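Before the break, one more example. Copy the sequence into your notebook; we will annotate it together after we see the structure.
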Amino acid sequence: MNVNRQETPAERKTRIFRERAKKLAAPGAPRDSGGESLELLEFLIGKERYAVETVFVGEVFPPGDITPVPCTPPFVAGVVNLRGRIVPVVDLKVLFGIRSVGEKRMFRIVLLQSGGAEIGLLTDGVQGIEITGREAVRPPLSAQGGLPGAYMTGIAGNDLAVLDGDRILRDIALTVDEEP
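Here is what the structure looks like once it is written out:
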């Protein structure tokens, strides 16, 4: 075997796929439980963990300049110009009544999109993607009423509140329009 020979693109691709297959086959690797999996984008609101299904996530971006909109509820942070589109931004911390406890906010906007509707959710930072079985998401406790509970589909793991992206996008109370 020639040690100095470089691998071809096809050989490189084959090698990468074999390495991935070995990692997935290793003990402790994530397995398909046979049920439907759920891909969630996890983010923070204050110190609380929330998530939304990635099928509703268009993109995540730093807020830049948020322009306040007069005559809107306090939870409407304003609007942003996203490549020529004006997108309303809702501050979930204000909407859900979560108090700041002196933590530094690493703002990110999670853009939800579905069926032509879009809304930005101002978060305190994005944690990443989590994949879980749909059956692992438990219904929210009745004690978790109020606004967060109205937008929740359930709880994943111990403390990850899963929000209903479709319900958020369809809620006219969160819609910013021309009527005061």
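The first strand starts at residue 37 and ends at 45. The chain is about 20% helix and 35% strand. Try to locate both features in your own notes.
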